[in-house]
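Collaborator request, handled under Task 6.
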Amino acid sequence: MTAGSTLFYPAAIWIDNIQLTDQGRGPVSRERDERSTTVELANGTRKRYIKAVKHTFSMDWDYLPDDSICTIDGYAARDTIVELIGDSESAHTLRFFYKNGAYEEFTVFVSSYSETLIKRDPVSGVFIWTVSLGFEES
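Structure tokens returned to the collaborator:
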């Protein structure tokens, strides 16, 4: 089976052109991060100057296998995510695909990563994880 051969849609989330599995993924949280300055004028009125509007993103997976071969769609699992982001301080391209083929793309930095080993299957050798990942738009 090739990656995604049994599913109608491609993976919803890509990091640096690598498709992340949808298996066990919860909702993606997107928050507005407004960078502004409020100034009080001599007459007592206040004005807000918006420097930039950036976004933060968070996502997590439950029961995520370590190997992409073990996911239902064949897309990147825990080990690939760790390889992609690792201890990286560099920027990444985060892309969200929609059902009509359109997508949004953001240049982001990893703001948080956590993982918990839930289970080790001695028969198959597969490790199962809970993974949480956060990004900040640059």
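The cover message to the collaborator said: "Confidence is low (pLDDT under 50) at residues 1-7. Helices lie at 78-85. Please let us know whether this matches your experimental observations."
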